[in-house]
Write a structure and sequence with these properties.
By secondary structure, this protein is mostly helical. The chain has a domain of about 120 residues: Alpha Horseshoe (Serine Threonine Protein Phosphatase 5, Tetratricopeptide repeat). Helix content is about 45%, strand content about 0%. The protein contains 9 helices and no strands. Helix 6 runs antiparallel to helix 7 and helix 7 packs across helix 9. The longest helix is centred in the N-terminal third of the chain and has 20 residues. It is globular and about 45 Å long. It starts with a helix and ends with a helix.
Length: about 230
Amino acid sequence: MTRRLTVSLVCVAMTWSASVKGQVIQPGAQPQPLPHLSPPGFNLPQQYPRMRSQTPRPVRRPGAPAEMTPGPVPPGPNVAAPPAQTPSAATPRQPTLSAFVVPSGLSEPIEHLLSDLGFEGGKTFPLTPRTTFDLAYLCYADGRYADAMVFASHGLRMCNDARLHLIKGVCELHRGLGTEAELTATDFRNAIAGQQVFGLDVARERINDSRAVRFADIVEYQATGR
């Protein structure tokens, strides 16, 4: 029994040695795998499958809100805020002076003056840039130059109206206030440059006496030097 086992082991060893030494490699040739042996790594994927890296997904607790898609990150404290928008030029300006403020310096109470000029009496007559010019013109036409200047100055507190500067300057010349009229001529030119010329052509036609011509001379001299 022992002899037969020894003979079998010797035969197996001789067969393996012959199979290993049976392949002769020529110079420059690549060694070829033996027919009965599998090439190295042939069954590597089956023996060692590749592990896929998976990112663990967060587990939502029962009752918790669902995860929302990330939105834009709000700017931090160091990010400059957008500049504040300036009000549009088309936005109407809120009046800063009530239309029922009675100007001071009139020769008589305003209700009496309005009655003398043919306007409705009382203190509910609104004074706006338009109505102050109408009142100033009636005072000018009636020779009440001081009252005309009061109404014109009051209207100019509401609006930089060129025609109010015109009647104010002409009345100042009627009262002998040459220096004041010269300053008013400058304000008149600035109002024209600012396109505050509503009703100016009609006002020039109505205010056309000799003092109005002298006031126009001052305006031209300031503008041209002649």
